[in-house]
Amino acid sequence: MAMRVTSHRPLLLDANAERALTADGYAVLPLLGTADVVQLLDRLTEWVPDFPEGFYASVHVPDERLRAGVNALLMATFRPLLNKICRDASLLGGAFINKAPGPRGALPPHQDWNIVDEARHRSFNVWVPLVDTHAANGAISVLPGSHHWLPTVRGPNIPCIFRQSHPQLRSAMKLLPMRAGDVLIYDHRLLHCSDVNRTQADRPGVVMGLVPSEADLKHYYVDGDRICQYQSNVEFLLSGRTHERPDSLRPESLFDYDSTPLSDERLAELLIARSHPTNSFRAELP
After folding, report:
1. Does 155 reside within a domain?
2. What's the domain range around 264?
3. 25 vs 111, 142, 155, 280, CA distance in Å?
4. Within a domain: residue 6?
5. Is the pLDDT reported for residue 140 higher than 90?
6. Cβ atoms within 10 Å, residue 217
7. What is the overall mean pLDDT for the chain?
8. Total number of domains in the chain
9. What does residue 188 show for φ and ψ, rounded to 5 degrees?
């Protein structure tokens, strides 16, 4: 199934940021003021007094009222702010996340799941740290330009073609230290990862999905020896059950997909091809 994007419209209003998002797969901009960050941290503490070990995401907790309350707060906070930097985009729902101190919580190099038909649209993650992030507390690292490499299909039970390439990918990643309240907007196809939190403090943040307003939502799941494309919706994304068989969604099509791990030789070719200056954009506060 061909899924390479042949064209797309701009997402970001800032021309330099949009060029970076298109070429490198990400852009970092200032978004929240100090008071907003403090308010969100206070609400997060009320909802989650003690974080579990490893990686936490409120969207996966069984408490439906907590998931809904978090989403309502984050939509009210971020929708007007993102409307000022994005054009005709839909915010899909929000969650608090945290990387706790300790040996658990590292995320290997990966791409986020497809949530649109990527032959027609791009989709994005919106990631906002609520504390300054750096190498010691597990800041996000990205592989600029990797969203252009290969058309891939990603979902809860679809093997990642990069699953045997983690060491090579990690060594090629670019660390993105960020200030509390900055926003990282990145293409879901972009390879990224984060290391363990080696400090004594939590590393909380906010994550949300973002798509062009005209894009229909999709979900992909292995059914037998083929992949099924489903029509998706925001309620499903916030259900806390996205890792399960999506029986509540309407199937649209079945197709074949080769999830054979990428060879070392092919990965080397891709890494060599991207070894050129990038257009990475980080807006500075005035």
Report:
1. yes
2. 15-273
3. 12, 9, 20, 9
4. no
5. yes
6. 21
7. 92
8. 1
9. -60, -20
